[in-house]
Design a protein that fits this description.
Length: 79
């Protein structure tokens, strides 16, 4: 199985990494492929204040969904 770990911490050797390391090691021991993406290093944006959601609720969060969907699909293909 492929496992994608999304890390939001800006410290690559901080507490979050230390807590995650045993988990990732166990997954690898069971034969899983691990890929860690450091979100702090990526250009991922939130709301762009396009106000689309105020005009039509069908597009609520559309820019955020598309940004994250493209980012995650590209990250998943790199595993």
């Amino acid at each position: 199985m492929r496992v994608l770990i999304l890390m939001g911490s800006p410290r690559k050797n901080g507490n979050t990494q230390k807590l995650l390391a045993p988990f990732a090691e166990q997954l690898q021991a069971f034969g899983h492929t691990i890929n860690t993406i450091w979100l702090y290093d990526k250009e991922v944006h939130g709301c762009e204040a396009c106000r689309c959601c105020q005009r039509d609720w069908t597009c609520f969060g559309a820019s955020i969904r598309m940004t994250y969907t493209r980012f995650l699909m590209k990250s998943w293909q790199q595993i």
